[in-house]
């Protein structure tokens, strides 16, 4: 941290702690994973038979042997206390979309008046938190409070540090007393197992050696940073995470100079601090850069198994939020914190891999000859086409509605981008032509001093919600604020379903005497012909695509979250989740209920905040300015400004009155009726208030305006 930064920090009263500086070699050799209970650490602390038993659970999915629990708990406690931990917590992901934790001390009083540090196997495996205050969607009544957290040995325990100590965090699942999942992790783990059971038999047909298959994931996180002083002077940001008011500034992202631009010193110091903490937690963050909008940034990891990646993604958001405060900043994860400029997504790069390290979506140098790749690629095309609804539902939220389809993010129409080469290969197979498609060559840069670089045969497409990017698919529609667990649960399950169907078909073809090449070729052709309507390599923002997709191809266009959520419990979806034991009918219905409830509460809070801020801050500011103008000797300018302010104030007063009526209305008895009332009545009434308020912001004197403006907030230094 340089001297100028410390001087400015002191002047601004930023809460900056100068942490120990590490050399690059120390970051790799000593810091990375230092606060994670790794397999190697457990190997050193357990007997050989116990470690092998635990290893079988972690690597092969064997049931956990409860007889080793006490030994693992002792090793875990000793390691954690050596790291400075005084407490432990079962760390889980309730259906709020965030994480939850209840801390218990290792301290246990003894009969002689002293105390011991204790942590038993039973305390490791299971804990009983209060389940009544977490959303259950009707699975549990308020008076039925019992719930259980159950240790997830597939995700490593870790240490979370704070200013005065540290806590051992044990990743767990969360279930009701009746055994139903009350969390996001349990269905994700079930979907991983479903994918494994579907893909391994397919690989056996290709004579590919494999023990287990799992999905892998790398989730890019976009976010905004604003000055903490400005944040606390914006009640809308504090209460809702987004600005409910704000006139368009003279400069936003028009000059396109922020993307990949130089990172401001304060921001870079914050990023370095956050990355050091993430490294210690074993989170393999790789990339940092300025995003498109001013004040917007991105952090991205490399790939991990999807259940671990989901845990790490939640930790990444937590670390970003906590660390930003040390630098006088606030990290905004909302999908659309500022109107009129790009929002934020969480691009999920998804693939499948074997326990031998093989990526099943790696096409190789000649993907048209890679039968195995074409088989799995066809399965994914089939899955996305047949389950467009579920993929759209998985990213549905009131906040993501502000982003999807806004010419900055993928449209709400689910389609697949395959790129030029892969599309041409599949088209040739479909037409019976065969042969090579476009071959990736070298890209000449027009100067002898610059090297030739390999060129991908397919370009990228930022407008596609689901794009093939070389050896993975990028699910770009996921919102920046949401947990990735449910979207990946859906993706794992629908792909498992498609792979299983194609495996059955392939077995039948092979059983009838076809050789593998012929059988796969015919299967790929049949599958592609049936589902190629979902493949689109063009501009997803274009109005023509929306017309073609909906009316020409028959693709779903669920424009809003409420359009999508209504279909979660359709018979097709309930049967799918039940057949693969990912979600029971009751668990699925509960999640639909919770999605409606969160939508209703989100917009309800926004509506009441809009009404309050407009009535108690913006309207008085406008009236104060009018009073000031009335004391000025009347001239044409003062008269004109007074008239403009008065007209906008009257407009806002009428809009606030209408919003007050809509906020007070129930909208119905059922939660879905209340949610639709918010969408159909409260959101338009809020927008009317905002239009009038933004007019006032442009004409009311700055000294009277009660909140920081976009011009002030967007450009972080």
TrEMBL record:
Superkingdom of origin: Bacteria
Domain (GS catalytic) spans 184-618
List, for all copies, the residue spans of the domain called GS beta-grasp.
Answer: 86-179
Q: Which family is this sequence assigned to?
A: Belongs to the glutamine synthetase family.
Q: What is the name listed in the Swiss-Prot or TrEMBL entry for this protein?
A: Glutamine synthetase III
Taxonomically, what lineage is the organism?
Answer: Bacteria, Thermotogati, Deinococcota, Deinococci, Deinococcales
């Amino acid at each position: 941290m340089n001297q100028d930064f410390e001087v400015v920090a002191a002047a601004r009263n930023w809460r900056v702690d100068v942490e120990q500086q590490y050399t690059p070699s120390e970051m790799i050799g000593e810091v990375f994973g230092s606060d994670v209970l790794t397999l190697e650490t457990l190997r050193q602390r357990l007997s050989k038979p116990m470690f092998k038993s635990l290893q079988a659970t972690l690597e092969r999915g064997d049931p956990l042997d409860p007889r080793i629990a006490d030994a693992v708990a002792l090793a875990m406690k000793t390691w954690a206390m050596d790291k400075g931990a005084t407490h432990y917590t079962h760390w889980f992901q309730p259906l709020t979309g965030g994480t939850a934790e209840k801390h218990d001390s290792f301290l246990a009083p003894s009969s002689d008046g002293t105390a011991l540090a204790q942590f038993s196997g039973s305390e490791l495996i299971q804990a009983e938190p209060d389940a009544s205050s977490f959303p259950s969607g009707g699975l549990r009544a308020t008076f039925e409070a019992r719930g259980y957290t159950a240790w997830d040995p597939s995700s490593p325990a870790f240490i979370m540090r704070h200013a005065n100590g540290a806590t051992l965090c044990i990743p767990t699942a969360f279930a009701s007393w009746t055994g139903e999942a009350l969390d996001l992790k349990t269905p994700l783990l079930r979907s991983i197992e479903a994918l494994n059971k579907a893909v391994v038999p397919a690989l056996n047909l290709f004579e590919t050696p494999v023990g287990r298959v799992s999905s892998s994931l790398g989730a890019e996180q976009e976010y905004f940073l604003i000055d903490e002083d400005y944040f606390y002077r914006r009640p809308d940001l504090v209460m809702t995470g987004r600005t409910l008011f704000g006139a368009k500034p003279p400069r936003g992202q028009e000059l396109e100079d922020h993307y990949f631009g130089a990172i401001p010193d304060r921001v870079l110091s914050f990023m370095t601090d956050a990355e050091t903490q993430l490294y210690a937690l074993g989170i393999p963050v790789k990339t940092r850069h300025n995003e498109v909008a001013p004040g917007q940034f991105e952090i991205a990891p490399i790939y991990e198994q999807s259940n671990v990646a989901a845990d790490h993604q939640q930790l990444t958001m937590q670390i970003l939020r906590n660390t930003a405060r040390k630098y006088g900043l606030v990290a905004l994860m909302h999908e659309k914190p500022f109107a009129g400029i790009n929002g934020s997504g969480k691009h999920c790069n998804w693939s499948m891999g074997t326990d031998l390290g093989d990526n099943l979506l790696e096409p190789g140098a000649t993907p048209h000859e890679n039968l195995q790749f074409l088989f799995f690629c066809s399965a994914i095309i089939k899955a996305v086409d047949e389950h467009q609804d579920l993929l759209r539902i998985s990213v549905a939220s009131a906040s993501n509605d502000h982003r999807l389809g806004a010419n900055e993010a993928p449209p709400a129409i689910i389609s697949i981008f395959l790129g030029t080469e892969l599309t041409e290969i599949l088209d040739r197979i479909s037409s019976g032509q065969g042969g090579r498609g476009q071959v990736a060559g070298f890209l000449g840069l027009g100067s002898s001093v610059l090297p030739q670089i390999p060129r991908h045969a397919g370009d990228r497409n930022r407008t596609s919600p689901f794009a093939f990017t070389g050896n993975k698919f990028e699910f770009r529609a996921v919102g920046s604020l949401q947990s990735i667990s449910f979207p990946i649960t859906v993706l794992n399950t629908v792909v498992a379903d498609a792979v299983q169907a194609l495996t059955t078909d392939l077995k039948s073809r092979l059983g009838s005497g076809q050789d593998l090449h012929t059988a796969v070729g015919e299967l790929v052709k049949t599958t592609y012909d049936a589902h190629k309507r979902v493949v689109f390599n063009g501009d997803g923002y274009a109005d023509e695509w929306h017309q073609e997709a909906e009316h020409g191809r028959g693709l779903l266009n669920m424009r809003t979250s409420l359009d999508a959520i209504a279909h979660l419990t359709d018979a097709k979806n309930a049967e799918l989740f039940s057949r693969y034991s990912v979600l029971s009918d009751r668990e699925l219905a509960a999640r639909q209920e919770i999605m409606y409830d969160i939508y209703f509460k989100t917009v309800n809070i926004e509506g009441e905040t809009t009404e309050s801020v407009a009535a108690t801050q913006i309207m008085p500011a406008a009236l104060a300015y009018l009073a000031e103008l009335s004391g000025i000797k009347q001239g044409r300018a003062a008269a004109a400004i007074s008239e403009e302010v008065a007209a906008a104030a009257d407009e806002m007063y009428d809009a606030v009155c209408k919003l007050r009526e809509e906020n007070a209305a129930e909208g119905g008895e059922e939660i879905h009726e209340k949610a639709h009332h918010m969408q159909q009545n409260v959101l338009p009434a809020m927008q009317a208030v905002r239009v009038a308020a933004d007019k006032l912001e442009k004409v009311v004197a700055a000294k009277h305006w009660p909140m920081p403006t976009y011009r002030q907030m967007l450009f972080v230094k």
